[in-house]
Protein: Rhamnulokinase
Amino acid sequence: MNGQSSAGGVFAAVDIGASSGRVMLGRVTGGRASGKTVSLETVHRFPNGVVELDGGLHWDFDALFGEVLTGLAAAAETAAASGDRIASIGIDTWAVDYGLVDASGVLRTQPFSYRDERGRTAVADVHKVLDPARLYATTGLQFLQFNTIYQLATERELRGVQALLIPDLIAFKLTGQRRTEATNASTTGLFDAVTGEWATEFFRALGLPKNLFPAIIQPGETVGTLLPEIAARTGLPAETAVVAVGSHDTASAVAAVPARQEDFAYISSGTWSLVGVELDSPVLDESSRLANFTNERGVDGTIRYLRNVGGLWLLSECQRTWAAEGHRQELTALLESAAALPAGGPQINADDPAFIAPDNMPERIRSAVRAGGAVLPDRPAAVVRCILDSLAAAYARTLARAEELSGKRTSVVHIVGGGSQNRLLCQLTADATGKTVVAGPVEATALGNVLIQARAAGAINGRLAELRALVRASVGLESYEPKLALQSP
Structure:
């Protein structure tokens, strides 16, 4: 990767998920004659996870931001070694969570995690003031007990502070500038899905300060440049720009879906599975609300029409439990053993809220199977097969419902993110949906992050179709055809 000439410099992608984060360098190389490609280089990885603090589940933001600075310093050093300069920095993370910052920029407390139970306690009170049907008709947001609107309803004092969603909080700590990026704003329950602005009537109804969130910024716009102390600590020039990308990691991932045509569905598969289609306008009717589909902003004003479905959190939590019990299970061996088991085994509701909090996941899965009148053998391979069969079935149901509600028909399913490496899950998804599954790229989120930065810098041009063509030219993909004998009748 070193030694390639980079058009417009290189781009630093800060990409943080609920269990880990990384800082990556993205390079756009080539020209008109040879065709451009984009490549990634990981310069720093670090763990992330919830911590118990004052009786609640929080993110250790101070530690997280320290890792971001370490990663940016590593990015600066790596770029300099190859004779490149970092043109900009983009940040994406998970959605809904926020930190409260006072007028002097001090973070009131470590941000709560969506895995904390506090949001659930406020749901009834919010719905007394704002009927769920009214909420959905404006925001188009899927009901989840941890949506930002419910978390905010538990706050005792919001005067004199602003709420910054996690990627915006990181950008603020880097630049001193307060903004709210649109794709993440759309996950708060306080964002108008049609106008693309804050739903100010909801702020009034809930007694929230009208300036609780900063002004909205779109992907590709510049947040600001580095504060002098950040530049000194990272070795980056103070004029290095922080550029808004699809700061909700799913928005960046969907931007990098390598689709050739418009009739595609996508599954961003990681800790959660985000399953849906891309639309030009939101679906805000009552049928969509009752099906609990969400209308979240994507890059270039698109709508990510999707549902949150349980994800590989189930599998990683099982591995964590087995390791704590002294039985460390290697994933490759687990998947091979699970693939050898016959089809038609017991399944669970993979997106049941009972699986949100960390705990003994294998026992909770076996308990859910027993509650359904079946028995799951006490063997890791059986538990893994149950998880993957359940996810594939949930994907198929969700995609069929998305097509029905949106009127958009699809011919191919793109799986991006970590789940694209899980060959068994990809094949089971092809079997369950009856559609071709195209797996990859694994690093879709970071690629989408880099592509928006590169377009803002003028290193590439075009809208989503052109960005997706660049992804196809840059990464290896694998296709899975449905095995007709295994499809559901």
